[in-house]
Amino acid sequence: MSARIFQRPKNAMQSGSGRREWVLEYVPAEPRKADPLMGWAGSGDTQSQVQLTFPSLDAARAFAEKKGIAATFIPAPPKTLKLQAYADNFR
To answer: N or C, which end of the chain is more exposed by having fewer CB within 10 Å?
Structure first.
C-alpha cells in the first residue's frame, strides 16, 4: 500500500494563509471504470476514498511510518507574486 503526502493549494478565491494542512492520500490500486448501467466512474478500491489531514508534515510522515505505508512526499511549488500597478495598463 502506498500513499502520497502533499499540501493542498489555495483556492483562487482565497487570499489568507490559514488552513495549510498536510494531506495523506492513498494511491489508487486499480483504475476506475464506467458502470454499464449508470455510466458512473468507480472502482472496487475503497482506500482511494480515504484522505487524512495532519497539521504538519512531520505528523503525516510519522503516521505513515507507524502504519507501514510507503509514502512519497510531493513538495508544494514555490509561491510567486506578480506585483503590478494600475499604471502598468497604460505603458
So the answer is: C
Query: Which residues are within 8 A (CB) of 1 and not within 5 positions of it... i.e. 6 or more apart?
Result: 26, 29, 47, 69, 70
Query: Which residue type, as a one-letter code, is found at position 20?
Result: R
pLDDT digits (tens, 9 = 90+) for 69-90: 999 999 887 877 788 888 888 8
* Strand 22-26 with 2-7, pairing: antiparallel
Distance CA 46, CA 1 (A): 12
Contact 52, 63 (CB under 8 A): yes
